[in-house]
C-alpha cells in the first residue's frame, strides 16, 4: 500500500481492512459490549455474495474486528445476507441471562427482473448468548407472508420491544412503484403477524429502504431511505436520501405520514442507511454508512484495497422544535490530543489529517478551506452553507452540496484520513463526505468572525483483528 493509501485509512471511523463495507446492521450493546455489524463483501473488488462483518468495542472508540460471522448458507439466503437489526431480550437465554437476536433479510435471486419477479426476500433470525457464537438460522417470514400488492423488494427488518410486545418494520416497494413500510407484531419476537403499513399521503419515492424507529424523550420518529426522489438544488441532492418523519401520534398509531414533513438526516455526499439503538446509559445512538448506492462518484481510488466506512457514533437528541439533533458521542472527545488555535484570518497548518476542529460564536459570512481541495462557505445574505470540492482527484467525482441555513453560529469538523463530518450549530444539521487528500499535512484556511477557533490532533487507530466468529451451521 502506498503512503497516500495509508493516509486515507481512518483511525476513529470504522472501515474494513479489506473489501467492501456498506449498511450498518445489528447495532446494540450486549453484556456491556457495543456491537456493530455491517454489510460485507471481503472479496471485493472481485465478485462475491454479501454477508455481515462485525466490530466490537467496550468504549465506542477502540474496536476489534471479529471477521464475518454471517454468510449465505441456507436456501433462503443463497444470494446474500442482507441488512437487519438486533434485539436484546432480557432474560431470554436458557440460563436466564440476556439473549441477542439478530434479524436480517435473506436474498434469493432467480431469472427475472428482480423487481416484480425473479427474487425472494426472506426474513431470518439467529441468536447468541455471548455476542460471538451464533445459533442456526430460523426463517421467520417468506414472500407469502407479505401483502399481495408488493413487488419482490421487501427487506431490512428493524425489531424493537414496546409495552411488552415486539414489533418489526420492513421497507417495501409496491407494485405501483410507491415505497412504504410494513408493520408486524409478535408476542415472542419469533412468530409474526402482519399489523398494517405506514405510507405517505402522496407518492414519495418508489422504495423505502432501511426503516428504523427512533423513540427518544417521549417522541417517535420513522427513519426511511426513500429511493426515487427528484434531486433539487437545496434538497434531495443525493441519488437516494436518508431522513425521518416525526410521528406525533407514535409509531403504533400511525398509518400515514405527510411527505412534506420528511427531514433529511445528513446533507453531505456520503450518508445512507442509518441505524439507531439505545445503549445501557439510555442514549439513542446513530451510526450511518458513509457511502451512497449507485453513486456516480467513488470511494475507492485506484489501488485502494477497501471501500467505504461508517460515521462515528452520534448521540441523537430532540431539539426545542421537535426535530432531531446529532452529535458525536462524548467518548470521541477522549481521542483529543494536542490543541492549537486556528487563526480566524489565516487558519493553521495541522500535522496530520486526523483532527477535531471547533469554531464557536460565528458571525456573518465564513470561508473555510482544507488543503485547497475541500471548501466550506456560508453566505449570510442568501442563507446557504456550501460544501464544495475544487480538486477532482481528491473529490473522486464529488462536486457541491448546499444546505439552507437561517444562521451559522457553530461548526465542528472531524477529519479522519479520508472522512469528513461537519456538525452545524451543535448538531442541528450534519454534512458527511469522503475526501482523499494528497498532502502530508492538513492546511486549514479560515476567514470568519468568531469568538474562538481551535483544533485538536485526534488519536485512535484502525480496528485490529481479534478472531473469527464460529458460525454454527444448520443441523450442527
From TrEMBL:
<dbReference type="InterPro" id="IPR023296">
    <property type="entry name" value="Glyco_hydro_beta-prop_sf"/>
</dbReference>
<dbReference type="InterPro" id="IPR051214">
    <property type="entry name" value="GH32_Enzymes"/>
</dbReference>
<comment type="pathway">
    <text>Glycan biosynthesis; sucrose metabolism.</text>
</comment>
<dbReference type="InterPro" id="IPR013148">
    <property type="entry name" value="Glyco_hydro_32_N"/>
</dbReference>
<comment type="function">
    <text>Enables the bacterium to metabolize sucrose as a sole carbon source.</text>
</comment>
<dbReference type="Pfam" id="PF00251">
    <property type="entry name" value="Glyco_hydro_32N"/>
</dbReference>
<dbReference type="Pfam" id="PF08244">
    <property type="entry name" value="Glyco_hydro_32C"/>
</dbReference>
<dbReference type="InterPro" id="IPR001362">
    <property type="entry name" value="Glyco_hydro_32"/>
</dbReference>
<protein>
    <recommendedName>
        <fullName>Sucrose-6-phosphate hydrolase</fullName>
        <ecNumber>3.2.1.26</ecNumber>
    </recommendedName>
</protein>
<feature type="domain" description="Glycosyl hydrolase family 32 N-terminal">
    <location>
        <begin position="13"/>
        <end position="328"/>
    </location>
</feature>
<dbReference type="InterPro" id="IPR006232">
    <property type="entry name" value="Suc6P_hydrolase"/>
</dbReference>
<keyword id="KW-0326">Glycosidase</keyword>
<keyword id="KW-0963">Cytoplasm</keyword>
<comment type="similarity">
    <text>Belongs to the glycosyl hydrolase 32 family.</text>
</comment>
<keyword id="KW-0378">Hydrolase</keyword>
<feature type="domain" description="Glycosyl hydrolase family 32 C-terminal">
    <location>
        <begin position="408"/>
        <end position="449"/>
    </location>
</feature>
<dbReference type="InterPro" id="IPR013189">
    <property type="entry name" value="Glyco_hydro_32_C"/>
</dbReference>
<dbReference type="GO" id="GO:0016787">
    <property type="term" value="F:hydrolase activity"/>
</dbReference>
<dbReference type="InterPro" id="IPR013320">
    <property type="entry name" value="ConA-like_dom_sf"/>
</dbReference>
<dbReference type="InterPro" id="IPR018053">
    <property type="entry name" value="Glyco_hydro_32_AS"/>
</dbReference>
<keyword id="KW-0119">Carbohydrate metabolism</keyword>
Amino acid at each position: 500500500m502506498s503512503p497516500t493509501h495509508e493516509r486515507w485509512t481512518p483511525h476513529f471511523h470504522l472501515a474494513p481492512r479489506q473489501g467492501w463495507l456498506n449498511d450498518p446492521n445489528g447495532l446494540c450493546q450486549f453484556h456491556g459490549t457495543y456491537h456493530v455489524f455491517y454489510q460485507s463483501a471481503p472479496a471485493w473488488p472481485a465478485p462475491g455474495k454479501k454477508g455481515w462483518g462485525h466490530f466490537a468495542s467496550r468504549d465506542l472508540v477502540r474496536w476489534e474486528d471479529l471477521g464475518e460471522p454471517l454468510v449465505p448458507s441456507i436456501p433462503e439466503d443463497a444470494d446474500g445476507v442482507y441488512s437487519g437489526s438486533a434485539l436484546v431480550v432480557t432474560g431470554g437465554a436458557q440460563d436466564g441471562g440476556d439473549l441477542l437476536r439478530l434479524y436480517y433479510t435473506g436474498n434469493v435471486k432467480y431469472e427475472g427482473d428482480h423487481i416484480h419477479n425473479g427474487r425472494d426476500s426472506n426474513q431470518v433470525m439467529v441468536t447468541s448468548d455471548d455476542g460471538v457464537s451464533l445459533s442456526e438460522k430460523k426463517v421467520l417470514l417468506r414472500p407469502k407472508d407479505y401483502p399481495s400488492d408488493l413487488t419482490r423488494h421487501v427487506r431490512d427488518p428493524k425489531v424493537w420491544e414496546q409495552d411488552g410486545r415486539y414489533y418489526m418494520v420492513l421497507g417495501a416497494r409496491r407494485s405501483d412503484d410507491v415505497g412504504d413500510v410494513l408493520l408486524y407484531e409478535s408476542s415472542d419476537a419469533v412468530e409474526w403477524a402482519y399489523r398494517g403499513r405506514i405510507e405517505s399521503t402522496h407518492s414519495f419515492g418508489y422504495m423505502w429502504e432501511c426503516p428504523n424507529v427512533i423513540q427518544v424523550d417521549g417522541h417517535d420518529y420513522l427513519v426511511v431511505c426513500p429511493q426515487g426522489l427528484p434531486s433539487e438544488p437545496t434538497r434531495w441532492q443525493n441519488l437516494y436520501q436518508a431522513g425521518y418523519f416525526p410521528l406525533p401520534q407514535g409509531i403504533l398509531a400511525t398509518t400515514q405520514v405527510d411527505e412534506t414533513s420528511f427531514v433529511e438526516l445528513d446533507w453531505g455526499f456520503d450518508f445512507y442507511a442509518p441505524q439507531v439503538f439505545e445503549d445501557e446509559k439510555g442514549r439513542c445512538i446513530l451510526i450511518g454508512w458513509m457511502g451512497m448506492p449507485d453513486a456516480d462518484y467513488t470511494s475507492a481510488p485506484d489501488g485502494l484495497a477497501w471501500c467505504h466506512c461508517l460515521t462515528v457514533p452520534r448521540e441523537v437528541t430532540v431539539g426545542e422544535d421537535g426535530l432531531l439533533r446529532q452529535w458525536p458521542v462524548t467518548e470521541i472527545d477522549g481521542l483529543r490530543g494536542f490543541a492549537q488555535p486556528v487563526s480566524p484570518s489565516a487558519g493553521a497548518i495541522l500535522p496530520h489529517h486526523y483532527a477535531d476542529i471547533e469554531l464557536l460564536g460565528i458571525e456573518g459570512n465564513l470561508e473555510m478551506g482544507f488543503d485547497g481541495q475541500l471548501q466550506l462557505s456560508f453566505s449570510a445574505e442568501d442563507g446557504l452553507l456550501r460544501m464544495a470540492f475544487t480538486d477532482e482527484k481528491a473529490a473522486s467525482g464529488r462536486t457541491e452540496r448546499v444546505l439552507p441555513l437561517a444562521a451559522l453560529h457553530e461548526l465542528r469538523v472531524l477529519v479522519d484520513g479520508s472522512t469528513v463530518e461537519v456538525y452545524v450549530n451543535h448538531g442541528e444539521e450534519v454534512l458527511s463526505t469522503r475526501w482523499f487528500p494528497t498532502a502530508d499535512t492538513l492546511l486549514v484556511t479560515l476567514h470568519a468572525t468568531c469568538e474562538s477557533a481551535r483544533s485538536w490532533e485526534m488519536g485512535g487507530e484502525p480496528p485490529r483483528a481479534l478472531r473469527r466468529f464460529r458460525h454454527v451451521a444448520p443441523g450442527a
